[in-house]
Automatic annotation (TrEMBL):
The chain crosses the membrane at residues 6-30. The lineage of its organism: Bacteria, Pseudomonadati, Pseudomonadota, Gammaproteobacteria, Alteromonadales. This is Peptidase S41. Keywords: Heme, Iron, Membrane, Metal-binding, Transmembrane, Transmembrane helix. SUPFAM superfamilies: Cytochrome c. It comes from Shewanella sairae. Residues 50-195 form the Cytochrome c domain. PROSITE patterns: CYTC (PS51007). NCBIfam families: PRK14487.1. The keyword ATP-binding does not apply.
Length: 204
């Protein structure tokens, strides 16, 4: 039996917390650090373009990741509906990852292979026009708000530091690529990129 003094000891609480945290780091983080090169070599993932990075920021800022997942689990109904199950190597350039945990709307892992750009635009402006039973709010103002591109270079530099293989030339041209593009169009480009890099992998 644990004594009252043991369960109420601040020192023991701190030591136990450090031990558990250290074990978690060893088990969850260290193996991935050791296997990074192997994972990258086997990955089909491609870095997002400057416009797609901006669109991803819009996706996050509008809370799209709250209602949509980007994680196809290895379960037959999901694979049949949404495409092949996610692999560890699919998300090596995702910072932060957008796997999500709630599906008020459908999973978007392979969305870019399902619909045209025009469909995406209509869906964002008025979801009910293409999906009559949709619960998704409309986002028409995103096509009226224009990106300046002032922050994109810093964002891509940060991603480069985290291991995304952007060249200095790509980063230097990013502002001009983004400037003047509407938030809605950037979001469409991001949505259209989803699943494109793994399209050649038809493993089921």
């Amino acid at each position: 039996m644990l004594s009252k003094d043991f369960t109420q000891s601040l020192v023991i609480l701190i030591v136990a917390t450090v031990v558990v945290a250290s074990f978690s780091i060893v088990v969850l983080i260290v193996p991935n650090l050791v296997r990074t090169d192997e994972i990258r070599a086997n990955s089909l993932a491609k870095p997002l373009t400057a416009i797609e990075v901006s669109g991803r920021d819009v996706y996050i800022s509008e809370g799209c990741h709250v209602c949509h997942t980007q994680m196809v689990r290895n379960i037959d109904p999901e694979v049949k509906r949404d495409g092949r199950a996610n692999k560890e190597a699919d998300d090596i350039y995702e910072f932060p990852n957008l796997w999500g945990s709630k599906r008020t709307g459908p999973d978007l892992t392979n969305l870019g292979r399902k619909y045209s750009e025009q469909w995406q635009r209509i869906h964002l402006i008025n979801p009910r026009q293409v999906v009559p039973t949709s619960l998704m709010p409309a986002y028409p103002w995103l096509f009226e708000q224009v990106l300046t591109g002032d922050e994109i270079e810093a964002k891509m530099r940060a991603l480069q530091t985290l291991g995304v293989p952007y060249s200095d030339n790509e980063i230097e041209r990013a502002r001009l690529a983004v400037r003047g593009v509407s938030k809605g169009e950037a979001l469409v480009q991001y949505l259209q990129s989803l699943g494109q890099d793994t399209a050649s992998d038809q493993e089921r």
